[in-house]
Amino acid sequence: MRLSDCHNIDDFRLLAKARLPWPVFDYIDGAADDELTKSRNTAAYADCDLVPEVLAGVDEIDTSVTVMGRKSALPLILSPTALQRVFHWQGERAVARAAEKFGLWCGISSLATVSVEEVAALTSGPKMFQLYVHKDKGLNSSMIQRCKDAKFDAIALTVDTIVGGKRERCLRSGFASPPQFTVASLLSYAMRPRWALDYVFREKFRMPMLDGYVGAGTKQAMSIQSYFTEMLDQSMDWNDAARIREEWGGTFCLKGVMSVADAKRAVEIGADAIMVSNHGGRQLDGSRAPFDALPEIVDAVGGQIEIICDGGVRRGTHVLKALASGATAASGGRLYLYALAAAGQPGVDRAVGLLKEEIVRDMKLMGAKTVGDLTRDKLRWR
Question: What are phi and psi of 129, to 5 degrees?
């Protein structure tokens, strides 16, 4: 299978599976416990049908939206994800360049393998930083200050990782950060020599946002489940979120809101946006899908705060359904991670390009000249 044979996100998944050692692929592809929520995140979109209107004169359409004060050419955000240079040696650099090319928001994680300073130099487009609140308060302040100095546009405080979800595929494979060549996984790495050579001989693995504060995950191998449970601040509450918003002083988003009550609290503390997200099903298995939760959250706080539907997006129609439900934009991580793992920046470019084509084509088929034409009356739930 070649990159040119990839015509949808599932195709990129198959190519990534063929090119990655199985412990690395399972880290991207896997989720918590029985992985029910991960499956539901995408399946939820199939429970809702689009109602097109015809003869709308759609020779020219506008796919752009304004998200958190910055214009995006598409109603799509490339969500921040950790450890990207483990999947392909280009890592966050490839994703940032693709976001610049397509005029999209991109994000990087506190557990990124490229610094905010380097990402800021790669793209003038809108950028968010995904903040994991650590027990080390000096580290938290350092990351916030570095985002200020790098002129990042927003911080997304992640609120659904108080402890690490039980990711059973990673427990079976022994996947850790940095990757460990164990007896159980050695054959898998040996069977993917291209990945192994890139990992061993290219730039040394590191997580530069943690430099000077935390060795775990960079110098000391640790599973992500253990990292979240041991290194992050389990005492974080709404007062801490409000304090972080004030310390940051810029556009502030809460990532991981799944209830109406929490959405209302986000409004109360002055957040600019929420990402309705369950962390890709990697934390609480059995939780609702973001798209399932979206209508009631929109009904409760729509117009008071921007609402981003995060997770499960595999098609342009998924983006349109989220918008018609009232979301400002849709976002996802695996939708580009499979492509990154499969082929680096050319893969990300192709994946985002295919989604762009789908969004444009589907808007025309819906009779929607602008994103604002996608309203709740264009949906029917089964």
Answer: -115, 130
